[in-house]
Write a structure and sequence with these properties.
Elements lengths: L1 E3 L1 E3 L2 E3 L3 E6 L6 E7 L2 H20 L2 H17 L1 H12 L3 H22 L4 H28 L6
Parallel strand pairs: 1-5
Antiparallel strand pairs: 2-3, 4-5
Amino acid sequence: MKQANLYINGEFVSANDTYEVVNPATNEVVAAVAKGGEKEAKLAADAAYEAFQTWSKKTAEERGKLLFKWHQLIEEHTDELAEIMTVEQGKPLKEAKVKLAMPTDLFHGTQKKASAFTEKQFQLLLLINDYLLISSLWESWQLLRLGTSRHL
């Protein structure tokens, strides 16, 4: 059974409690995941605030490069991520692959349009897409680092 700690500010952090992730098709426990509390939530919120300070100072081009790197990682690991989603959520494999393709499709659309914008317009576009991409990629990130996403 896989054990997973919290990932906060670039470090794995243990917690006093865990929860079990159960394969809905077999009722098999597939992972034990750290369950954070108030202390861990504060650490994560503080880390997110600091990360935003750095992120907001990046140029549109720098953000685009980082998002493209993320996009490449999802594409490279789609099969593995889809298998994890299937075991952990009971989601059909084909549906899991479609869900993983959604943020990459969004990225491709943004990337194609980017050349027509000024730097300021592109920053606004990235701000909107940052929110959409980060929201939709959050589950993929959880899968990459923990191998589970349902309870996070």
